[in-house]
Design goal:
single chain; GMP Synthetase, Chain A, domain 3; 2 domains; three-stranded mixed beta sheet; about 30% helix
């Protein structure tokens, strides 16, 4: 029987978009609060603040690693390790979030390259975050170590 789990986060914002700032808080885990501002979103390398795209990338990389690990285990080839990352492209002015590049490197015993790529692609297509982001181009670079 399906069961719904609710996760929460919140943001408080002060001021206008270009000069304002805010704080995003992870509510469910209570792991912390993070400063956010437009500069972190619009300029690469802004230190000390985060952006919706960075948070989305973290969510996608995590979801993908979990889905891929599960698919590998269901295949009878559980991974020794899975390292994943996500690069989220944000087009300022038009387009918004235009793409996500997932990269994964995994150590898996007794698995050939073709099956590895098939399972990697399946995880990309079917992890819940990928499903939620179907309107965005998602690419995958998968390396069997």
């Amino acid at each position: 029987m399906p069961r719904t789990v609710i996760s929460t986060a919140s943001t408080t914002w002060q001021g206008d978009l270009p000069s304002g700032n805010g704080t995003t808080t992870l509510g469910t885990s209570q792991l912390g609060s993070f400063p956010v501002n437009w500069k972190a979103r619009a300029e690469e390398g802004e230190k000390g603040t985060t952006s919706p795209e960075e948070l989305l990338g973290a969510a996608h990389a995590t979801c993908y690693a979990m889905a891929f690990s599960n698919g590998l285990a269901e295949n009878g080839t559980p991974p020794t390790s899975v390292d994943s990352s996500a690069k989220v492209s944000f087009n300022i002015g038009e387009g918004g979030i235009t793409g996500i590049e997932l990269t994964v490197k995994a150590v898996v015993e007794d698995l050939d390259e073709a099956d590895f790529q098939r399972l990697a692609e399946d995880a990309k297509q079917n992890c819940p975050v990928s499903q939620a982001l179907k309107g965005v181009d998602i690419t995958l670079n998968a390396t069997l170590a």
